[in-house]
Amino acid sequence: MTSLLTLAWVYLRIGLMFVGGGYVLIPLLNHIMVEQHGWLTQRQFLDGLALSQLTPGPLAMLATFTGFRSGGFLGGLVATVCIFLPCVVLMLIIGRNYHRLKNIDLIKSTLDGLLPAVVGLVAAAAWNLGASSLSGLQEFMTLAIGFALFKWTKISPMIVILGAGVVGMLLN
Q1: Mean per-residue pLDDT for 145-168?
Q2: What are the backbone dihedrals phi and psi of residue 47, each rounded to the nearest 5 degrees, phi first?
Q3: What is the pLDDT of residues 74-90, one digit of tens each?
Q4: Which of 65, 92, 100, 109 could disulfide-link to 48, CB 3.0 to 4.6 Å?
Q5: Residue 153: what pLDDT?
Q6: Model pTM greater than 0.85?
Q7: Number of C-beta neighbours around residue 169 at 10 A
Q8: How far is CA 153 from CA 1, 6, 23, 166, in A?
Q9: What pLDDT shows up at residue 158?
Protein backbone atom coordinates (compact mmCIF):
# COMPACT_ATOMS: atom_id res chain seq x y z
CA MET A 1 0.00 0.00 0.00
CA THR A 2 1.38 3.37 -1.03
CA SER A 3 1.45 6.20 1.48
CA LEU A 4 -1.09 8.97 0.97
CA LEU A 5 1.72 11.52 1.19
CA THR A 6 3.51 9.86 -1.74
CA LEU A 7 0.30 9.82 -3.77
CA ALA A 8 -0.37 13.47 -2.93
CA TRP A 9 3.15 14.56 -3.91
CA VAL A 10 3.15 12.60 -7.18
CA TYR A 11 -0.27 13.85 -8.26
CA LEU A 12 0.38 17.45 -7.25
CA ARG A 13 3.46 17.39 -9.51
CA ILE A 14 1.48 15.78 -12.35
CA GLY A 15 -1.32 18.29 -11.79
CA LEU A 16 1.12 21.15 -12.30
CA MET A 17 1.81 19.87 -15.82
CA PHE A 18 -1.78 18.72 -16.47
CA VAL A 19 -2.87 22.21 -17.54
CA GLY A 20 -3.88 22.33 -21.18
CA GLY A 21 -4.93 18.73 -21.68
CA GLY A 22 -3.90 15.43 -20.32
CA TYR A 23 -3.03 13.53 -23.50
CA VAL A 24 0.45 15.02 -23.58
CA LEU A 25 0.98 13.47 -20.16
CA ILE A 26 0.38 9.87 -21.21
CA PRO A 27 4.12 9.08 -21.48
CA LEU A 28 4.77 10.73 -18.10
CA LEU A 29 1.84 8.96 -16.45
CA ASN A 30 3.00 5.64 -17.89
CA HIS A 31 6.52 6.20 -16.61
CA ILE A 32 5.38 7.20 -13.11
CA MET A 33 2.57 4.70 -12.65
CA VAL A 34 4.12 1.65 -14.34
CA GLU A 35 7.88 2.01 -14.41
CA GLN A 36 8.78 4.21 -11.45
CA HIS A 37 6.28 3.23 -8.74
CA GLY A 38 4.87 -0.04 -10.11
CA TRP A 39 1.35 0.98 -9.10
CA LEU A 40 0.00 -0.58 -12.32
CA THR A 41 1.20 -3.14 -14.82
CA GLN A 42 1.44 -2.02 -18.45
CA ARG A 43 -1.79 -3.94 -19.19
CA GLN A 44 -3.58 -2.31 -16.23
CA PHE A 45 -2.38 1.10 -17.41
CA LEU A 46 -3.73 0.48 -20.93
CA ASP A 47 -7.01 -0.90 -19.55
CA GLY A 48 -7.35 2.07 -17.18
CA LEU A 49 -6.59 4.46 -20.02
CA ALA A 50 -9.22 2.81 -22.24
CA LEU A 51 -11.85 2.75 -19.49
CA SER A 52 -11.12 6.32 -18.46
CA GLN A 53 -12.06 7.47 -21.97
CA LEU A 54 -15.67 6.66 -21.06
CA THR A 55 -15.69 9.22 -18.25
CA PRO A 56 -15.50 13.00 -18.05
CA GLY A 57 -11.92 14.12 -17.47
CA PRO A 58 -10.44 10.88 -18.78
CA LEU A 59 -6.85 11.10 -17.58
CA ALA A 60 -7.86 12.50 -14.24
CA MET A 61 -10.02 9.41 -13.80
CA LEU A 62 -6.92 7.33 -14.53
CA ALA A 63 -5.39 9.06 -11.51
CA THR A 64 -8.41 8.06 -9.42
CA PHE A 65 -8.09 4.48 -10.65
CA THR A 66 -4.37 4.36 -9.85
CA GLY A 67 -4.84 6.03 -6.47
CA PHE A 68 -7.54 3.53 -5.58
CA ARG A 69 -5.43 0.56 -6.71
CA SER A 70 -2.44 1.71 -4.70
CA GLY A 71 -4.08 3.35 -1.68
CA GLY A 72 -7.71 2.26 -1.46
CA PHE A 73 -10.61 4.72 -1.28
CA LEU A 74 -8.51 7.44 0.41
CA GLY A 75 -5.76 6.93 -2.17
CA GLY A 76 -8.26 7.48 -4.98
CA LEU A 77 -9.60 10.59 -3.28
CA VAL A 78 -6.13 12.03 -2.62
CA ALA A 79 -4.96 11.34 -6.20
CA THR A 80 -8.08 12.94 -7.68
CA VAL A 81 -7.95 16.07 -5.51
CA CYS A 82 -4.21 16.52 -5.99
CA ILE A 83 -4.27 16.16 -9.78
CA PHE A 84 -6.95 18.87 -10.04
CA LEU A 85 -5.72 21.24 -7.32
CA PRO A 86 -2.81 22.92 -9.17
CA CYS A 87 -4.90 23.46 -12.29
CA VAL A 88 -7.81 24.93 -10.36
CA VAL A 89 -5.55 27.32 -8.44
CA LEU A 90 -3.70 28.33 -11.61
CA MET A 91 -6.95 28.92 -13.51
CA LEU A 92 -8.32 31.05 -10.68
CA ILE A 93 -5.19 33.21 -10.82
CA ILE A 94 -5.04 33.40 -14.62
CA GLY A 95 -8.79 33.90 -14.96
CA ARG A 96 -8.68 37.02 -12.84
CA ASN A 97 -5.81 38.45 -14.91
CA TYR A 98 -6.55 37.07 -18.37
CA HIS A 99 -7.25 40.38 -20.08
CA ARG A 100 -3.85 41.72 -19.05
CA LEU A 101 -1.90 38.50 -19.73
CA LYS A 102 -3.25 37.68 -23.21
CA ASN A 103 -1.52 40.67 -24.80
CA ILE A 104 1.97 40.09 -23.39
CA ASP A 105 4.37 39.12 -26.20
CA LEU A 106 6.44 36.85 -23.95
CA ILE A 107 3.38 34.76 -23.08
CA LYS A 108 2.26 34.59 -26.73
CA SER A 109 5.69 33.48 -27.95
CA THR A 110 6.05 30.97 -25.11
CA LEU A 111 2.74 29.35 -26.03
CA ASP A 112 3.76 29.32 -29.72
CA GLY A 113 6.96 27.52 -28.73
CA LEU A 114 5.12 24.97 -26.62
CA LEU A 115 2.73 23.88 -29.36
CA PRO A 116 5.24 21.79 -31.40
CA ALA A 117 6.45 20.10 -28.21
CA VAL A 118 2.89 19.21 -27.26
CA VAL A 119 2.28 17.69 -30.70
CA GLY A 120 5.50 15.70 -30.30
CA LEU A 121 4.47 14.42 -26.86
CA VAL A 122 1.07 13.33 -28.15
CA ALA A 123 2.76 11.53 -31.07
CA ALA A 124 5.20 9.82 -28.66
CA ALA A 125 2.33 8.74 -26.44
CA ALA A 126 0.46 7.28 -29.42
CA TRP A 127 3.61 5.45 -30.52
CA ASN A 128 4.29 4.01 -27.06
CA LEU A 129 0.69 2.90 -26.54
CA GLY A 130 0.53 1.40 -30.01
CA ALA A 131 3.80 -0.47 -29.58
CA SER A 132 2.59 -2.07 -26.36
CA SER A 133 -1.02 -2.82 -27.35
CA LEU A 134 -1.03 -3.61 -31.06
CA SER A 135 0.04 -7.21 -31.49
CA GLY A 136 -2.17 -8.73 -34.17
CA LEU A 137 -4.23 -8.06 -37.25
CA GLN A 138 -7.41 -7.52 -35.19
CA GLU A 139 -5.80 -4.69 -33.19
CA PHE A 140 -4.40 -3.03 -36.33
CA MET A 141 -7.77 -3.27 -38.09
CA THR A 142 -9.55 -1.83 -35.06
CA LEU A 143 -7.00 1.01 -34.99
CA ALA A 144 -7.42 1.75 -38.70
CA ILE A 145 -11.22 1.66 -38.59
CA GLY A 146 -11.36 3.73 -35.40
CA PHE A 147 -8.99 6.30 -36.90
CA ALA A 148 -10.99 6.50 -40.14
CA LEU A 149 -14.29 6.87 -38.31
CA PHE A 150 -12.91 9.57 -36.04
CA LYS A 151 -11.09 11.44 -38.80
CA TRP A 152 -13.61 11.34 -41.64
CA THR A 153 -17.05 11.08 -40.03
CA LYS A 154 -18.97 12.94 -37.39
CA ILE A 155 -19.52 9.80 -35.29
CA SER A 156 -19.03 10.50 -31.60
CA PRO A 157 -15.72 9.22 -30.18
CA MET A 158 -17.80 7.57 -27.45
CA ILE A 159 -19.58 5.44 -30.08
CA VAL A 160 -16.24 4.51 -31.67
CA ILE A 161 -14.82 3.48 -28.27
CA LEU A 162 -17.91 1.50 -27.29
CA GLY A 163 -18.06 -0.11 -30.73
CA ALA A 164 -14.41 -1.17 -30.52
CA GLY A 165 -15.12 -2.69 -27.09
CA VAL A 166 -18.08 -4.66 -28.46
CA VAL A 167 -16.06 -5.87 -31.44
CA GLY A 168 -13.24 -6.93 -29.11
CA MET A 169 -15.70 -8.78 -26.90
CA LEU A 170 -17.31 -10.58 -29.83
CA LEU A 171 -14.03 -11.60 -31.46
CA ASN A 172 -12.38 -12.95 -28.30
Answers
A1: 88
A2: -65, -45
A3: 999 999 999 889 888 88
A4: 65
A5: 93
A6: no
A7: 8
A8: 45, 43, 22, 20
A9: 83
